[in-house]
Structure formats: structure tokens, C-alpha cells
């Protein structure tokens, strides 16, 4: 009976998290980045002060784990086109230069910290592979867009 009560409490905390915090974020890639930022990278423990205050630390942690895992798995199996759009949207949300951010993501592989703690290796590998494909695609298409933008402006004649 107590485990069922605990499960209901975790579901209520997860629903609260979704409604108050995750919904306004707007898309799964940004949600998993946010949720992974609530995890202590030394211990793997999740913490959210507001959720812990409203429920309990253990309930809040369980809700964060469940929400992170759910958003991650949903994104990991998403079609590559939609996945790439979400990666691009997240990278464009940075105030830093787009190309520099793409290079940093490719070189540093910061996205590795977004994988949930208890994620199976196959899904983790699929996610990392999709990120690498998305970054490669975004890097390859950027110069073409810049070239098209230059062609759209009228050419100046000598002496103008």
C-alpha cells in the first residue's frame, strides 16, 4: 500500500514539474538539458528546491528522474529531422556565435551529460549518434544558407 502511495506522490510531483517548469520550456531537447542540470554530476542525485519543498526530497528526486528519462527516450527515438530541428533551436538560443557553438558542441560533446543516469547503452548510443548527425548536418548547411543570402542582395557595379 505504501509503495502505491509513493508512486501516486511521485506522479503528482512529476505532473507539477511538467505544468510549472517543463511545459514553458517548449521542446524536449531543452527539457533534457534543463533536467540534466538538476543532477549532481558527482553523485547522480537530482535536486529541485521548489519541488522538494512542495513534496519531499526523495519524491522530487524520483519525479525528476522519471521526467528526465521520459523526455530523453521520447527524443532519442524521434525522427532525425525533428531531432535536428530541436538541436538547432537549442544552439540558436545561445547568445554566442552559432558556428562557434556548433564547433564547441562537436568538440566538447557536452551533450553527453544530458543522458539520464539509468539509461540503457543502446538508447544512449542512438542519442549520441543522432546528435553527431545533427551537428554535422547543421555545420554543412550553414555555408549554403550564407551564400544564398549573399546572392539575394543586388550586385554593385564598379564605381558605385
Describe the structure.
- The chain is mostly helical.
- It has one domain (2-150).
- It has helices at residues 2-25, 28-37, 49-54, 57-76, 80-92, 98-108, 121-152.
- Helix 5 packs across helix 7 and helix 6 packs antiparallel against helix 7.
Task: Write a brief caption for the model.
This protein has 160 residues and is mainly α. The chain has helices spanning 2-25, 28-37, 49-54, 57-76, 80-92, 98-108, 121-152. It has one domain.
Q: State the helical fraction.
A: over 70%
Number of helices: 7
Average pLDDT confidence is 88
Category from helices, strands and their pairing: mainly alpha
The unreliable regions are 146-151
Order of helices and strands: HHHHHHH
Number of domains: 1
Largest sheet descriptor: none
What is the distance, rounded to the nearest whole angstrom, between the alpha carbons of the first and last residues? 83 Å
Question: Whole-number radius of gyration?
Answer: 20 Å
Amino acid at each position: 500500500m505504501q509503495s502505491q502511495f509513493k508512486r501516486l506522490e511521485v506522479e503528482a510531483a512529476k505532473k507539477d514539474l511538467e505544468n510549472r517548469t517543463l511545459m514553458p520550456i517548449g521542446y524536449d531537447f531543452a527539457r533534457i538539458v534543463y533536467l540534466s542540470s538538476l543532477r549532481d554530476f558527482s553523485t547522480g542525485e537530482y535536486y529541485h528546491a521548489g519541488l522538494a519543498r512542495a513534496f519531499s526530497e526523495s519524491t522530487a528526486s524520483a519525479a525528476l528522474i522519471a521526467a528526465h528519462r521520459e523526455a530523453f527516450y521520447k527524443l532519442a527515438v524521434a525522427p532525425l529531422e525533428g531531432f535536428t530541428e530541436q538541436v538547432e533551436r537549442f544552439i540558436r538560443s545561445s547568445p554566442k556565435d552559432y558556428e562557434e557553438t556548433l564547433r564547441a558542441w562537436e568538440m566538447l560533446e557536452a551533450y553527453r551529460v544530458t543522458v539520464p543516469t539509468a539509461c540503457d547503452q543502446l538508447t544512449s548510443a542512438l542519442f549520441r549518434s543522432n546528435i553527431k548527425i545533427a551537428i554535422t548536418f547543421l555545420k554543412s548547411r550553414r555555408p549554403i544558407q550564407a551564400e544564398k543570402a549573399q546572392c539575394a542582395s543586388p550586385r554593385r557595379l564598379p564605381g558605385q
